[in-house]
Write a structure and sequence with these properties.
13 helices, six-stranded parallel beta sheet, 401 residues, alpha/beta, binds adenosine-5'-triphosphate
């Protein structure tokens, strides 16, 4: 269990509470296209409102790189949050996030009211954890609550720097839930524990592979990263995505799995095509071949049917499953079959199922399996760093219990 002060441990009645949320939602022409992160933030906000706090919400959105960019304003978030909460969330826009008008608006708040600050990354200091901006944010509040799991792997002003200048710093319910689910899965899993990794490159997940191999019973590797492993086994992988520099690393991991007595499953068959689809959703001709028979001029773009069945079987016997990264180029319907079958297997099991954010979370939600999972992380990068066994600065910065 997370040993950090939480919103249940603090008294916020009449206090100004700065809440760092993760409102980094996808926007298309000013419309929010996926509001999962807003919904995930509601329990903490509702609790603090019910306790009579004066709630000052803040978040980043996209990468404005230290400049006010109107298309990355949090204005649409204030509108949608007001609807979701059934209560006004007053947007207090400022090109510099904190200024005299924002301070005046905060001073004028009554208990239970909510304001939302502008995108914290409008300030160049935010991602550099600059002291001046941290102090400005701290000057607005009496208490700080961090509920932004999605940025917990970064030390920025609005999640880490600010804690140096506020006496009481707690974590919110979302942060607690994320750490409890991921922490239990990795450190205290009900076994068998099956970890499934996919996505593009081995290089992005070196430490995750090594750490999970130690913790799990079965490690399944699919997606683009599988081909470096297959090449490490001496197979011809054609023109598939390969990190040549990581072949030795993959050999080490194969040996490590054997030494630890762990199952390491790689694709036994592969869906291949002549070229990478262009555009990404182009209708392409594919075939399925055994993984050790990929022709030299062909590219592996998804796991094959036999592999999909084998992976699904492994999921069926598991009591805990953690999944990060698609099994193939799932953006193309013809190459999404492997990812869909893994998602389906997770949806059908009674095991604890945890999706590690990013593309796999998007895939699960798009397929309509979202409510069948025990937990879908709101943070891709943060969940990966957690799975690597790293301490997250955004969590470490909160007060201990
Ligand atoms: P995030 O970091 O957002 O959590 P992720 O970990 O889920 O993402 P990435 O490492 O970003 O996954 O990789 C996802 C990308 O990998 C997808 O765009 C997918 O098309 C691509 N991909 C999957 N399989 C292959 C393959 N066989 N060849 C090339 N690209 C692939």
């Amino acid at each position: 269990m997370l040993n950090k002060k939480s919103v249940d441990d603090i008294n916020v009645k009449g206090q100004k509470v700065l809440v760092r949320c993760d409102f980094n939602v996808p926007l298309k022409e000013g419309k929010i296209t996926d509001e999962n992160r807003l919904v995930a933030a509601l329990p903490t906000i509702k609790k603090l409102v019910a306790d009579g706090g004066r709630i000052i919400l803040c978040s980043h959105l996209g990468k404005p790189k230290g400049e006010p960019k109107p298309e990355l304003s949090l204005a649409p978030v204030a509108v949608r949050l007001s609807e979701l909460l059934g209560q006004e969330v007053k947007f207090v826009p400022s090109a510099v996030v904190v200024d005299d008008s924002v301070k005046a608006a905060v001073e004028a708040m009554n208990d239970g009211e909510i304001v939302l600050l502008e995108n914290t990354r409008y300030r160049i200091e935010e991602t550099k954890n600059g002291e001046a901006f941290s102090k400005e944010l701290a000057s607005l509040c009496d208490v700080f609550v961090n509920d932004a799991f999605g940025t917990a792997h970064r030390a920025h002003c609005s999640n880490v720097g600010v804690t140096e200048f506020v006496d009481t710093c707690a974590v919110g319910y979302l942060m607690q839930k994320e750490i409890d689910f991921l922490g239990n899965a990795v450190n205290n899993p009900e076994r068998p524990f099956v970890a499934i990794l996919g996505g593009a490159k081995v290089a992005d997940k070196l430490n995750v592979i090594a750490n999970l191999l130690e913790k799990c019973d079965t490690l399944i590797i699919g997606g683009g990263m599988a081909y470096t492993f297959l090449k490490a086994k001496g197979y011809e992988v054609g023109t598939s995505l390969v990190d040549d520099e990581k072949i030795d690393y993959c050999k080490e991991m194969i040996a490590k799995a054997e030494a630890l007595g762990k199952n390491l499953y790689l694709p036994v068959d592969t869906t291949i095509a002549k070229d990478f689809p262009s555009p990404i959703d182009a209708e392409i001709e594919v075939s399925v071949v055994p993984s050790n028979e990929i022709p030299a001029d062909m590219m592996g773009l998804d796991i094959g049917t036999e592999t999909a069945a084998k992976f699904a079987e492994a999921v069926k016997t598991a009591k805990t499953v953690v999944w990060n990264g698609p099994m193939g180029v799932f953006e193309n319907p013809i190459l999404a079959k492997g990812t869909i079958s893994v998602a389906q297997a997770l949806a059908e099991t009674d095991a604890t199922t945890i999706i590690g954010g990013g593309d796999s979370a998007a895939a699960v939600n798009q397929l309509g399996f979202g409510d069948k999972m025990s937990h879908i992380s709101t943070g891709g990068g943060a969940s990966l760093e957690f799975l690597e066994g790293k301490e997250l600065p955004g969590v470490a910065a909160a007060d201990d219990k």
